[in-house]
Write a structure and sequence with these properties.
There is one protein chain. The strands form three sheets. Strands 1, 2, 3, 4, 5 and 14 form a six-stranded mixed sheet that branches. This protein has a five-stranded mixed sheet with strand order 11-7-12-6-13. Helix content is 58%, strand content 12%. By secondary structure, the protein is an alpha/beta fold. Helix 2 links the parallel strand 1 and strand 2. Helix 17 runs antiparallel to helix 18.
Length: 518
Amino acid sequence: MKKKRRLPKGWNYVLLLIVCLAAVGGVVGHNYQEKQKQEKQLAQRAKNAVKSVKDLDGKKIGVQIGTTGDIYASDYEGDDAGTVIERYNKGTDAIQALKNDKINCVIIDEQPAKAYTEKDNTLKILKEEFALEDYAVCIDKSNTDLKEKINEALTKLKEDGTLQDIIDNYIGEDSVKGTKPYEIKDVKRNGVLKMATNASFKPYEYYENNKITGIDVDMMQAVCDELGMKLEVEDMEFDSIIPAVTSGKADVGAAGMTVTKDRLKNIDFTESYTTAKQVIITIDPKAGITKSSLAERFHDNFIKDNRYQYIVKGLQNTLLITVFAVLFGIIFGFVIAVIRTGHDKNGGFPILNAFCRIYLTVMRGTPAVVQLLIFYYIILVSVDNKLLVAIVAFGLNSAAYVAEVVRSGIMAVDGGQFEAGRSLGLSYAQTMTSVILPQAFKNTLPALCNEFISLLKETSISGYIALVDLTKAGDIIRSNTYDAFMPLIAVALIYLVIVMILTAGVHCLERRLRSNER
């Protein structure tokens, strides 16, 4: 038996020293690479810096879609200098793109710009203003009576100083800011005033302690106190506010909205309640690149102000929509599948089959987000329960796919099974329900479970109708912290964990089905 060779005495310490030196060298090398990367990034920022309005030509400009900044910036689009306008659903997304050097500047309202720059010293607002504008409350053209009442209330609030106090409480001098919170009056209320807004526009509307607050919210609360109405606030995408008002989903829209000629074609506005200006946010090339620790970012995104509750509420709504939509889809899908196969086998249900084919073509040929918006703003315009709208929309969408899955399962059952049932004296309906469908259901069960998984992920578009689902919850947190990494990763991990659990369940189900066939 050969003896194991051992290293000479002292060599163990030499090897340990080499490993330590390699580790230290790796850390030093990594830090050097990071430093070089930051220096290169800072040099690139300095080269592409926007220092005035004159520098906008040929740059990538970020705007929030549908805002005044979008309208004004559009004048630069398609010029000879090659200026590009990048449109984002939220100002927060535009700011994140700016910080990641995907764009050169952001055009946005002054007060939200101040809120962004206070959070990050690498951002700065150019001293030169881009444009002046007046904010007003949008209202449907046919609702002239409500418009007159709101105008009268705004006039009174201006005259008694209430409106100025509300504004000063958020954006006044430091000695005044936060000292004049609006207190809701104890008045008799008849009726509800629904206000549509985009709660990512601090200080005009934003989330604080799981509640939408801000200048516009307090102003409309003061208006409701004058009108003797109860205020309800709906948070939605900015470009959905005007459609919500014109369709009757909301009575008014207040989100730092500017009166423009294009908007006046579709909507009316009250008298202006404040004046603001558009400014340009850019990266300060002189500022260093600073990064918070993961612990600090975790605390700011989830612990501070109990922001984790948005995730909890969003997850509850996501699961609720998914479960009921799948049940709805399975029931309706089975009905469609029976009609389609009945027509294929014996030519029955010709009219119903024609309607089913049209339905399947439309639902499978159009995006789910478009279907959701059509249901919310057109088909179910009188339904106020957004959860119900989402369940119906996703359920009908799922039914189209379930129907084809079940139909293929029915067609896969051996034709002799059907003939055997009929030969025993069973009617067509009895043969289908007692012989064919149980076998088809067993064959399609794994595919139906996969449809459940797909539908779970599709519900992430629910935020388009101002419904707080899991994805929308992450957006709300991002609009408060201006941090994209933590909320998005958290939402992605939650979806991933749920899908992994469901996938494991599907695999177990498939194994049991195969074992029963032996």
